[in-house]
Design a protein that fits this description.
Layout: E1 10-14, H1 19-30, E2 34-38, H2 42-52, E3 60-61, H3 69-83, E4 88-91, H4 107-134, E5 140-145, H5 158-177, E6 183-191, H6 199-203, E7 205-206, E8 212-213, H7 220-231, E9 241-245
Helix pairs in contact: 1-2, 1-7, 3-4, 4-5
């Protein structure tokens, strides 16, 4: 990596091998960022990189399991060694559990969601903060992927909803505790972006009143554009919380 390339703005996207992570990675690259892609599936990360074509700076795929502390440290050591800094972390990777009542849920189902949605976000944020505090110029931005479930649940979504509520607390704590190091922290709450994860919405999903209804979805590229908008703000400006959703999906009045 040349010295000139170290001056590029560097962004890391977790869960970059599909859906929102892929769309955000491509949008950040088009906006001029050198994008580091991470996730567990190296083939899908390479596919994201291939989709970028010649639209901007090359992408760098570094597979990692964000639930494993040693993996996360290795990921950030690579970023520090290769690029010298990190300007934006998009904590996007997420997981869900089967839609079953809480009393029917297994320990393994609960722990798997907490490991990715909460612990993984913490591990990546911790390493990002350590790098952002010591790099020159100091500071950077962390964007956490929340959810409309950070505000109100869907039926039978206890682990997902609990972790997304926790992300709100983590976002507020980071935003408060690291201001003096010029680190800004935001949360983006997304409703029904059209990805593989939300294909079931188009077929109809359970509503709070017990009915099953088809829910509108929105183009995932709109989410990528929103992430870029937050990322491009100067560090003395922050959007602590942004909600972006399909206009007519059942959110207001849910339940």
């Amino acid at each position: 990596m040349s010295n000139d390339s170290k001056m590029n703005r560097v962004a890391l996207v977790t869960g970059a091998g599909s859906g929102i992570g892929r769309a955000a990675s491509l949008a950040l690259q088009q906006a001029g960022y050198l994008v580091v892609l991470t996730g567990r599936r190296s083939g899908e990360l390479e596919r994201t990189s291939e989709m970028s074509g010649e639209r901007g700076l090359p992408m760098r795929a570094i597979p990692a399991d964000i639930t494993v502390s040693a993996d996360v440290r290795r990921l950030f050591d690579n970023i520090r060694d290769e690029f010298g800094r990190l300007d934006v972390l998009f904590n996007n990777a997420g997981a869900n559990a089967p839609a079953v009542p809480l009393d029917e849920m297994t320990d393994e189902q609960w722990n798997a969601v907490v490991a990715v949605n909460l612990t993984g976000t913490f591990l990546c944020a911790r390493e990002a903060i350590r790098l952002m505090k010591t790099q020159d110029p100091q500071g950077g931005r962390i964007i956490n992927n929340g959810s409309l479930s950070a505000h109100t649940p869907r039926p039978f979504s206890a682990p997902y909803t609990a972790t997304k509520h926790a992300i709100t607390g983590l976002t507020k704590s980071i935003a408060l505790d690291y201001r003096k190091w010029n680190i800004a922290c935001s949360q983006i709450d997304i409703g029904n972006a059209a990805t593989e994860m939300t294909e079931r919405m188009a077929a109809g999903v359970l509503q709070a009143n017990g009915t099953v209804a088809i829910e509108p979805r929105m183009d995932v590229e709109q989410v990528g554009a929103a992430v870029v908008y937050i990322a491009n703000l100067p560090l003395n400006v922050n959007i602590p919380f942004m909600t972006i959703m399909a206009t007519t999906m059942p959110f207001f009045g849910r339940g």
